[in-house]
Here is the input.
Amino acid sequence: MRKYIFYFFIYIVFCLLQFCFSQYLNIFGIYPNFILIFVVCIGLLKGSFNAELIGFLFGLTWDIFSTDIFATRALLFTILGYCSGKLRKNFDEDSIIFQCFVVLAASLAYNLGVYFINYITIHDILVYNLGITLVRSISKTLINVIVTPCVFSVLRRVLKEV
Amino acid sequence: MNIHQKSKYENIVFVILLLICFLFIFGRAFNTVNCIKHFIYYLAYPNVNTANNILKISGNFARNIKSLLHLHQENIFYKQKNHELTDKFRNYELINQEYESLLKLLKLSKIENTNSIYARIVVREPGSWYQSFIIDKGLDDGLYNDLSVVVFNKTKDSFCAIGTIVETHKTSSKVALITNSESVFSVEIKNKEVTCLLEGFNSNLVRITYIPPSTNVNPGDELVVSKSSSFFNAGIPVGIIKEVTKDPYMDFQTATAEVFFDTASTNIAIVLIPLEQKQ
Here is the structure.
């Protein structure tokens, strides 16, 4: 029971962090994707099962508040959670470089995934320009990689309590 | 074995979640999915655009709900209107009661269902001083023949009958006075409920004929327009009896009366237009 209350609390905290503070703490419109880092972290620390479920839940929440195609983020976070959980077995999840590398790969996959799903479903190349998307994706990815060690260290301590 | 089973669950859940996601992504072609999304969004952030989107997406059902909402809004609007009109009607009733009681207290005649138009007397010929005059209002102002004309009598503090419109032009009308020798209409002796006939004399005096012999008529009795008059509203003061002639050989009494209006000092006439017959 305590575990579920704790996860619910984490869910609320990350929702607030991602949706409420983004408009105040962004740098030229670029803001770290805390949910993605959290999903990857859960995947690496707790395994695929938890990560895919949390990813799906966070993705759906984000989709509800977004004007993009519904379930795009739910799909991407589920896949990323699952994949990061699978990587856990083959690499050392405590390594900061490995964490940053996984977050980098996940961020790029996530941003390009959003682009492609929107492009496939809406077919508007003007709205979803690949060049601009790449530049923005790389910027977001770099920001995510920068904050990854901090988020991981905090989450590692918090998750140990559960 | 346990790890293997856990991995199996992971994969199954993963596939199920993927299927749900794809269902949602491709389900955007279906209105239901969009509708659910907008509905949840509306619960989180209620706003008009989202509400409109929900109603747009959910097709016929939404159209019915939309029309119901419109009806509900209309209903609220008409209820408010109804309240306002009820209040106004209540006020009108109160004012009407007050008006009636004031009329009784002041002993004034009631002018009902008429629209008043004030007109200036512009032409009075010396040769027809007690016969007619011309007012500066005509067809353009909604006047027409046979409308009754009254004047305000300052001494009596009420409206008094003066004549009827006999000719109407674009911007002027001719009023035949009740003192005109061709003018005849029925009047009542006030508080005696006796109807008799008023005939003009081409002077400020008029002759009252067909007074029943049994009626006790005295000088000073007031004459008002009879209920059977087709020109004037009943109860409008006309004149005062000056002299009564009682001839035992005649079937009816005759009287001479003085009209209430003073032709010399009358400058403004009021034309009464019945609202139901207004052209």
Remarks:
- The two ends of chain A are 11 Å apart (CA to CA).
- The interface with chain B takes residues 47-49, 52-53, 56, 59, 63-65, 69-72, 74-75, 78-79, 82, 85, 117, 121 of chain A (CB under 8 Å).
